[in-house]
Amino acid sequence: MRAGALADLGVLVPVVAVYALLRGLGVVSSDIGAIATGVVGAVIAPVVGGVVAGGRAPSAPLTNGAAAAGAAVVAYVAFRLVDAAVRGASIHLGTIVILVMLDITLGLLGGLAGFRAHRRTSAPGP
User: Fold this and answer.
1) 91 pLDDT tier (thresholds 50, 70, 90)
2) Domain boundaries of the chain, sorted by first residue
């Protein structure tokens, strides 16, 4: 599970950091940057984490995929809460709940994909 969570964060953190840097420099002023960051952060990162976790733990790939995505999203939410407190911005609870549910579901699906890929590569040949 740890490797999956690190893979998830390994995709998420650089994307969020680049977006924050570009937004701070004024390079990204439209919402397209936020949308692209959101798609990568909420869709691609948990799937990648789930694939890694599911492939490494074939005895319980769905659980490990969901747990990896859950651990990564909890770390992200904690960061966002601190960020919002520092900036004096508000955070909507509904947004956090939906993000957590979506990430865990996608991590679970990634775990299934990782398990299937692991099973396919480790199966004895004909």
Assistant:
1) confident
2) 2-122
Could you give the dihedral angle defined by the CA atoms of residues 95, 101, 107 and 110, in that order, rounded to the nearest 10 degrees?
-100
Take residue 34 and report the two structure tokens written for it: 């936020």
The tens digit of pLDDT for each residue in 61-76 reads 999 999 999 999 999 9
Place of tokens 């299937």: 116
Please write down the HEC assignment for all residues of the chain: CHHHHHHHHHHHHHHHHHHHHHHHHCCCCCCHHHHHHHHHHHHHHHHHHHHHHHHHCCCCHHHHHHHHHHHHHHHHHHHHHHHHHHHCCCCCHHHHHHHHHHHHHHHHHHHHHHHHHHHHHHCCCC
Provide the token pair at 97: 């709940």
* Tokens found for residue 100: 């957590």
